[in-house]
Amino acid sequence: MTTTIRTLIPEPHVTQRLFADPHLASLWTLLRVFVGYEWLMAGWGKITNPAGVWVGEKAGVAVSGFLNGALAKTGGDHPDVQGWYAWFIEHLALPNATVFSYMVAYGEMAIGLALILGLFTGLAAFFGGFLNANFLLAGTVSSNPLLFILATWLVLGWRVAGYWGLDRWVLPKVGLDAPATEGARTAHSNPV
Questions:
Q1: Nearest-5° Cα angle at 122, 121 to 128
Q2: Any idea what the Cα angle at residue 142 is, between residues 164 and 85, rounded to 5°?
Q3: Burial, 123: exposed, middle or buried (Cβ in 10 Å; 0-12, 13-18, 19+)?
Q4: Residue-wise pLDDT tens digits, 120-160
Q5: I want to staple 180 with a disulfide (CB 3.0 to 4.6 A). Which of 22, 35, 109, 148 is the partner?
Q6: In this structure, what DSSP letter does residue 2 have?
Q7: Cα(5)–Cα(156) distance, integer angstroms
Q8: Closest by Cα among 22, 47, 37 to 178
């Protein structure tokens, strides 16, 4: 029988303070709610679009237009959209534009609601950043760089970003440590 010795690498005090200290929960909550509101409004605008080009009888029209615009940016010496991503657009996204349309609209709403409520904050921020990265890969700038950076910070700060939210109660119910608990901070700072 072999015994595995697990050594924890101590967390630097700076990152422990930024990403795990409940004293900064108010700052993380403001950041989380701002990003959540941006996602919620983006999704709401798509779902309630009166033309029904995102969700409804003409679902997929807006996504097809967006994706065809991205494909137009694949030429030249310095294309805005790389060849491998153009392949993804052409062979996977465009043929399934209706499915992608619903996924984007409802995904943005779900990300926004989860972030505002502080429910599975790290996971919601990860998927928000994933959407931002895809929009950037498709050659769209807009607010995507800022939201991608903020989503990355929220993923790093998930322990305290959901402290003033549902994560504080839901995460222990699913077998995860509550955000920014004393035990979680101690385990990361004192190797055994």
A1: 85
A2: 100
A3: middle
A4: 999 999 999 999 999 999 999 999 999 999 999 999 999 99
A5: 22
A6: -
A7: 27
A8: 22
